[in-house]
Amino acid sequence: MHITPDNRLKKLIVIGDRVLIRPSRPNEKTESGLYLPPGVQEREKVQQGYVIRTGPGYAIPTPPEDESWKQPEEQVKYIPLQAKEGDLAIFLLSGATEVMYEGEKYFIVPQSAILMLEREEEL
Question: Residue 115's Cα: distance from chain center in Å?
Answer without folding.
Answer: 12
